[in-house]
Amino acid sequence: MKNRVRELRTAREWSQAKFGDALGVSRQTINAIEKGRYDPSLPLAFKLAALFEQSIEELFEPEVASKTVRPAAKAPQ
Amino acid sequence: MVAYLVLIFGIGFLVDFETAGNWKYLVALLPLLPIIYGARAIARSLGRSDEMGKQIQLEGMSAGFGAAMLAALTLAFLAMAGMNSEQLGPWLVFGVGMTTWGFHTIAGARRVA
Asked: CA-CA distances (angstroms) from residue B77 to A44, B73, B82, B84?
């Protein structure tokens, strides 16, 4: 999943290790999240959002699904 | 590690399992003690890992479990057909399970690196 974690982390001049310590995860996990190779769990995503003072939706960009989800048809009245 | 391997393979030379009494079963199980210690260490390491580390390890373990079960079933069906795998069977199951666990864990770690 694309995200702005690296952009926001480097803007604050935090190292991956320091950032990981603040979140209680390893540097490797931070690196994997920034590269989009690992999607964090919901609690971790909330911690990230709180640390950057942003919403989860502002941090993470979900991948577009191949099939469009159509809203359920309304019953005739 | 070398001492452990010597113990595993040397026990057959130290003890005559053909003629020894029932204590031979206790001697045969001695190599399990360090393995139990190793299993505790793996469980502690898993507990200390973060969420991504746990996911990689658990995916590797589940792949190893699945491979071991498949190997065991394969040997069971072959035994039904008359194939004798009494000596090789347990070691084959262990080897397939451990190898799959190892390779799957390494692949998982490289995927996120």
From this structure: 46, 6, 9, 11
Q: How confident is the model at residue B42 (pLDDT cuts 50, 70, 90)?
A: very high
- The verdict on a CB contact (< 8 Å) between B50 and A31 is no
pTM, full prediction: 0.79
Residue of B nearest to A38 (CA): B112
Residues of A in contact with B51 (CB under 8 A): 25, 29, 40-41, 44
Half-sphere exposure in the Cβ direction for B80 (13 Å, CA): 5
Do A5 and A35 form a contact (C-beta atoms < 8 A)?
A: no
The answer to whether the CB atoms of A40 and B51 lie below 8 A apart is: yes
B108 CA: distance to closest CA in chain A (Å): 11
Chain B residues touching A28 at Cβ < 8 A: 52-53, 112-113
Q: In residues, how long is chain A? A: 77
Model confidence over B48-69: pLDDT tens digits?
999 999 999 999 999 999 999 9
As beta bridge partners, residue A61 has A2
The string of pLDDT tens digits covering residues A2-61 is 999 999 999 999 999 999 999 999 999 999 999 999 999 999 999 999 999 999 999 999
Residue B44 tokens, joined: 């502690």
Q: With CB atoms and an 8 Å threshold, state whether A28 touches B52.
A: yes
Look up the ipTM and state it.
0.77
